[in-house]
Amino acid sequence: MTAHEHPTEPLQEQLAQERAARRLAEQQLADLVARVDNAQRLATMGDYDWHVATDTNTWSDELYRIYGYEPGSIEPSYAVFLEHVHPDDRERVTEVHRHAYATGEPYEMLERIVRPDGEVRHLSSNGQVVCDASGTPLRFRGTCIDVTERVLAEQEREEAARRLGEVQQRRRQASEINDNVVQGLTAALYAGQLGDHVRAADYVQQTLAAACRMMTELMDVPGAGDPTLVRSQAADLGGGPGLDP
Asked: In the chain, what are the domains?
């Protein structure tokens, strides 16, 4: 030791280095947290960590936003989570969690939540059960991704396809009516005007059979295509039992 060296100087230098290292580690951790939060915002994805025994649920900032809250503005728990699950999905969601708790198996599901303002959001959720050495479940942890826009877009595509199918079906039906009914009646009319009543009656009979067949296909009702029903209705209207087609 020199004449000017104080015995506490090495210790102070070591403490200063440790403080600097701690500040650096804290800054790096804060940067990492900020990057993760930014990534979750961009992906509209949040994560959760639910401790079963204490019913304490840790949510990431983005998960609060997904549920319609500012980060940290409510105290999350399993009961709070269930309150936000859409009533029609609640039983299915709890059954998924029961199965995971009983088996330790990971899970994936689509669920709907209802935000405080009443807006319904669609989430793609996954999770896993964390157990102790004896296999006792301790925690549920996983992620939730807001897929509302994707689900709504798919529903719109399905609805557009359904409407297009209905339009195409109506066009086919109109074409069949024209080909089998309108043209048949027109031919019968012309035959009648020419005095060919036998051929007119034959056209009417063919048209009636085609109409009954189309009624059966459209209505899918047993007996709808039975010509005897049409004949009996015609008789009831005053045509008489000997009505000629």
From this structure: 43-146 (3.30.450.20), 172-234 (no CATH)
